[in-house]
């Protein structure tokens, strides 16, 4: 495949940044998007030019590190697919492809396509955990969990913390990420003791980090590579209202 890439290059956080065009020949349609960028970087290094910085780790769709806006869409054109699992056969021979970093006020660019997503970690640190000592694993049948709750919690727990929801949101909100965490923990018996403090603390951290408010446009769930459903945000809002109104009922 022949490709024209227009890639966002930015030296550091204070650099203005710009799109730079690169031509690639002979890219295998079976290459992943990141492997295609590896080929570009090998060529840049061979030409004594600065390679393009981009985030990645597992390349298996599980770590949440890959984070590219491809032709205007976080993680590119294939639904429920991370950038690292996207393959070049999804593009046309000769296509012009724009590659940009996540764009959100809370995610400043560090270099080229790499942004600082530590505000997501800050939210986890402020409440996205269960602190009760669990000891050895209890006998599974001693803590019954209704099947619909278990299924819903499992679905929410699939969030890999990539931040595509934030990049897709016109308000730069992390409500889908937050809703996924609050739902996954709040539906489990082990998550009950901290349920109300968790939602208040995580939402406060969300707002302090500069994420915007959710207006339920739904772009987040479309961009989410794990298909986290929009209704986790309803649960987030419901828990927050109950926590702050003092009702604290299920
Ligand atoms: S909700 Fe989806 S898009 Fe948002 S961080 Fe989790 S996996 Fe990524
Ligand atoms: S590199 Fe781990 S999910 Fe893409």
In short:
The chain is an alpha+beta fold and 250 residues long. Helix content is 33%, strand content 12%. It has two domains: 3-111, Ubiquitin-like (UB roll), CATH 3.10.20; 117-130 and 143-245, Fumarate Reductase Iron-sulfur Protein, Chain B, domain 2 (Orthogonal Bundle), CATH 1.10.1060.10.
How many individual domains? 2
CA(first)-CA(last) distance: 55 Å
Indicate the proportion of strand residues. 5-15%
What's the total count of β strands?
7
Query: Which distinct ligands sit in these coordinates?
Result: iron/sulfur cluster, FE2/S2 (inorganic) cluster
**CATH topology type of the largest domain:** Fumarate Reductase Iron-sulfur Protein, Chain B, domain 2
SSE order in H/E notation? EEHEEEEEHHHHHHH
Number of helices: 8
- The CATH class of the largest domain, by name, is Mainly Alpha
What order do the strands of the largest sheet run in, or round the barrel if closed? 2-1-5-3-4
- The percentage helix is 25-40%
Biggest sheet overview:
5 strands, mixed
What are the low-pLDDT stretches, counting only 5+ consecutive residues below 50? none
Average pLDDT metric = 95
Shape: elongated
Keywords: Iron, Iron-sulfur, Metal-binding
Protein name: Succinate dehydrogenase/fumarate reductase iron-sulfur subunit
Organism: Actinomadura parmotrematis
Pfam families: Fer2_3, Fer4_8
List the SSEs and their pairings.
Layout: E1 3-9, E2 18-24, H1 33-46, E3 68-70, E4 73-74, E5 96-101, E6 109-111, E7 114-115, H2 118-125, H3 147-156, H4 164-168, H5 175-186, H6 195-208, H7 219-223, H8 231-245
Parallel strand pairs: 1-5
Antiparallel strand pairs: 1-2, 3-4, 3-5, 6-7
The structure holds iron/sulfur cluster and FE2/S2 (inorganic) cluster (FES).
